[in-house]
Amino acid sequence: MSPVLESTARALSHRVAAEQAESRLPSLAVAVVRDGRVAWFGARGLAGEAAPTRATQYRIGSITKSMVAVVIMRLRDEGRLDLLDPIGKHIPGTPVDEVTIAQLLSHTGGLTAEPPGRWWERTPGMPFEELLALLGPETSRHRPGRRFHYSNLGFGLLGELVARQRGTDWAHAVQQEILAPLGMRDTTTRPRAPHATGYAVHPWADVLLPEPEHDAVALAPAGQIWSTPDDLARWAAFVAGDTGGVLAEATLAEMHEPATVDDGDAWTGGYGLGLQLARAGGRRLAGHTGSMPGFLATVWADPADRVGVLFMANSTSGVRRTLLTDLLAILDEHEPRLPAEWAPSAVDPELLALTGPWYWGPAAYALRLLGGRDLSLTPIGGTGRASRFSARPDGTWLGLDGYYAGETMRLVRNPDGSPGHLDLNTFVFTRTPYDPQAEVPGGVDPDGWRA
Question: Are 32 and 4 in contact (CB under 8 A)?
Fold first, then answer.
């Protein structure tokens, strides 16, 4: 898709300028990504002595976690580990050996948020063996699986897991398996020129304080990486679905699935497997926020629309949480994406004969062809369970989502070969409500329907 329209660019620029001025940010770099490419870039302020460009490095903090998580998922896909493995199977001797890899990825393992010792983000790090020796009973703060509790320490353990599985440090694994294949050549674990200087902004005066930067060593997998707007745009495209062969599409989709929510009944934010999730403006977003002393960054992507947004700032605090969702709203207002053109397609006549109404007892459902041999089963009237189904070579269908995700649907034929009923994990769907000719569990009253 071409760059944004001039009117859109003006509105985006105004929002970014307002954020940099009103939040008092030394510098702010922002990009909009559409269909895998930067559609708009804007920047304000000074990253040091010069204005930020698309090649200026900023520290991206906890966005690092998502990259570590991708390596973990690659290890799972290779059969080297299982997400249900307790971490103690791979790193014995921790006080939380029973916590699973999946729970660490989704911050539901109940671990303390921060490691013991001094504030790790502003002090030199320690090797993993020293960190492990400091861990005790207080490492566990909640029953595993009980609740969402963000844990930097948990990703320190996951980084060590990567190192032990790959026989190298976590950063080398991320570079070789993710950054290089995606072309993210300016993403590194320590700053390289040109890079922004990290500052704290005084709360009551317009003065700056430089923030320290250290190698976090054992905690580095929780927030060490530096990147550029161009490279982070490529990462946004990855999260939106352009995996570049780094990860199977189904595995990325698994990372997007909500494992937990972090704001209770509101469900505006949650966490998948190494990815933060958010719902805003009718979109379901995936990505991650990042914060380290002197730096803030966030990337959000909408796989359904193949659009992403990101910002990078060299300030310890200040960027409003609504900045990126406001940019998406501007994009939607000024340049709503046009629906894909509809066109007819060839279909299997036998499958065409199956489409239309089916009944689960008295409840009406519609069976539709989605493309190829895939199907959807949705309630007529909106009340009931809806799922999509993928065709399998044996003539059955596998549920992809909703209540029937992972369940098998099969067509049961009559003795003469004509379609009889659908068997969906013991539920029987018939062409008429409680068809007496079908194998309805419990049978059908022989006197039929009555007043």
Answer: yes
* Among the listed residues 79, 14, 58, the one whose alpha carbon sits nearest the alpha carbon of residue 235: 58
SS (H, E, C) 186-210: CCECCCCCCECCCEEECCCCCCEEE
The amino acid at 246: V
pLDDT of 1 strictly over 70: no
- The rounded distance, in Å, linking the Cα atoms of 301 and 236 is 6
Angle at 375 between CA 398 and CA 366, to 5 degrees: 120
**At a CB cut-off of 8 Å and minimum separation 6, what does 59 contact?**
191, 198, 213, 223, 225, 226, 290, 292, 294, 295, 297
Domain spans, the chain: 6-334, 349-429
Residues in the chain: 451
Q: Contact 4/12 with Cβ under 8 angstroms?
A: yes
pTM listed for this prediction:
0.91
Tell me, rounded to whole angstroms, the distance of Cα 158 from its chain centroid. Answer: 17
Contact 376, 387 (CB under 8 A): yes
Place of tokens 């003539």: 395
- Of residues 3, 10, 12, the one with CA closest to residue 327: 12
Is the predicted pLDDT of residue 173 greater than 90, yes or no?
A: yes
pLDDT tens-digit profile of 238-295?
999 999 999 999 999 999 999 998 877 778 899 999 999 999 989 999 999 999 999 9
**Side chain identity at residue 415, one-letter code:** P
Rounded to 10 deg, the angle between the 63-77 and 249-256 helix axes is: 130
Tokens found for residue 156: 């320190």
At 337 the pLDDT is 87
Going by C-alpha positions, the residue among 160, 38, 8 that lies closest to residue 90 is: 160
Q: What is the pLDDT of residue 265?
A: 76
Closest C-alpha among 40, 38, 47 to residue 16: 40
- Give the CATH superfamily of 6-334: DD-peptidase/beta-lactamase superfamily (3.40.710.10)
318 and 26 in contact (C-beta within 8 Å)?
no
Distance CA 282, CA 303 (A): 13
Judged by DSSP in three states, 149 sits in coil
Neighbours of 141 (CB within 10 A): 14
Give the mean pLDDT of 2-6.
90
